[in-house]
Automatic annotation (TrEMBL):
This is Uncharacterized protein. It comes from the Bacteria. The chain crosses the membrane at residues 13-31, 40-58, 70-93, 105-131, 137-159, 166-184. Keywords: Membrane, Transmembrane, Transmembrane helix.
Length: 231
């Protein structure tokens, strides 16, 4: 079992807050194109923030008491998978609206359906093998794919709007996620290694938050002015 210190656990709340801020900026932008789609994005944002917050709270509890409250740790997988799926689908629908070619199907229903299917598969795997980790890998795979899809949509939108510096910040965040996934596979998670991971995570979350804020503000300004060009 990994060891945690109180300062390490407290610092883990910082990337959660930064990434959540970025997601709220994106949700605000999405809501300007369609209120219903904006509500889907907001739900996804709250799920992601709750999942990350519970994981950070679990780590703090471990550092203080050594008590492993499993559901708090597992909530990260259960909440992030549907959260990122909802966010990615909402941004996809919003960009279609911006281009003047709205999707011809019920996007919220599709996003909820996709999330429900994978949660059901994970539940079956968890019941079939309670001690196994297959259900976590399923949800982790969904989270990773949806997160990358969300980032890709942001990068494409930024480039097409001529905001290269914003796109680069989103790319930096994606690269950091890949690096963190590699570091997380190291068996011996020492305190210095965990500090390295959390610092990288904080910096990449800050880059994401700032990029999301810039993209949201620029998009909303162009929507108000009626000069949004996003072909």
């Amino acid at each position: 079992m990994n060891e945690y210190t109180v300062p390490l656990a407290l610092q883990d709340f910082m990337p959660v807050m930064l990434s959540s801020a970025g997601l709220f900026f994106l949700a605000e932008m999405i809501a300007r194109t369609n209120r219903a789609t904006g509500r889907v994005a907001l739900l996804g944002t709250w799920l992601i923030m709750l999942g990350g917050g519970l994981k950070a709270a679990w780590k703090l509890n471990m550092a203080i008491s050594g008590n492993d409250i499993a559901w708090m740790s597992n909530a990260l997988f259960v909440l992030l998978a549907p959260g990122f799926t909802l966010m990615a689908c909402a941004l996809w629908a919003a960009q279609a609206q911006m281009r003047g070619r709205p999707l011809g199907f019920n996007m919220p229903a599709m996003a909820l359906g996709i999330s429900g299917v994978f949660l059901a598969v994970a539940a079956v795997l968890g019941i079939a093998a309670p001690a196994g980790s297959a259900w976590k890998f399923v949800l982790l795979g969904v989270t990773t794919a949806a997160n990358f899809a969300l980032s890709a949509l942001c990068i494409v939108q930024a480039f097409r709007m001529g905001k290269r510096e914003v796109a680069i910040l989103f790319i930096i965040n994606v690269v950091a996620i890949i690096i963190l996934q590699g570091l997380a596979r190291i068996p011996e998670q020492t305190i210095p290694l965990q500090w390295t991971e959390q610092i990288i995570n904080t910096l990449s979350s800050a880059a994401f938050a700032y990029a999301a804020w810039k993209l949201s503000r620029e998009t909303q300004a162009r929507l108000v002015a009626g000069r949004l060009q996003f072909a």
